[in-house]
Amino acid sequence: MTHSFSAELTTGFSNRTISSGWHMRLVEGPAPRRVSGQLIPASRPGAITQDLTSLGLLPHSAEWVAQCGWEYSVDFPWRSSGEGRTKLIFRGLAPTARASINGHALRPGAGPESAFHDVDALLLNGINTLKIMLTPGAPPTPVATDPFIS
Q1: Where residue 112 falls among pLDDT bands split at 50, 70, 90?
Q2: Is 146's pLDDT higher than 70?
């Protein structure tokens, strides 16, 4: 099963997708030692099983993945264009996920299809950090799917 997630900054007629440079780390839960305390390269938020498998970090059973909390982060440069207010648009993010920019929490979106956030006042001219927290609690799923992407 293929899941899609995207994060995009829009200002006026300019769009910028935040699609690379993601990392994930375990923040809580019963994970193997080789995963605990590691900053792990990630393809996109929510692709936990896929990313752990591709890096050889997923043992035979993946049941523990859904019992863990995960934090995704990405640093990205930004320079205000002065073209208007900047919005962050998420698509495909689980409704239970929490997000922040530069340490400022974003309100949860209305649903997984798309969530819009006015982030104009939160962005810095320079390097910014976007974090997404996925909390445990979803039932275990087979290796082919991920519990955190809708």
Answers
A1: low
A2: no
Q: Tell me what pLDDT residue 3 has.
A: 54
- What is the three-class DSSP state of 53? helix
Q: Which residues on neighbouring strands pair with residue 100, listed in sequence order?
A: 105, 131
As a whole number of angstroms, the distance between CA 103 and CA 45 comes to 18
Ramachandran angles phi, psi of 139, nearest 5°: -65, 150
> Rounded to whole angstroms, how far apart are CA atoms 45 and 69?
12
The residue ranking higher by pLDDT, 104 or 83, is: 104
Residue for token digits 């920019």? 101
Helix (H) or strand (E) holding 133: strand 126-134
Which tokens hold the place of 34?
Answer: 């080789």
pLDDT at 140: 37
In which element (H, E) is residue 51 found?
A: helix 48-54
How many residues are present in the chain? Answer: 150
Q: Map out the domains of the chain with their CATH numbers.
A: 6-134 (2.60.120.260)
Token look-up 């979803």 returns: 138
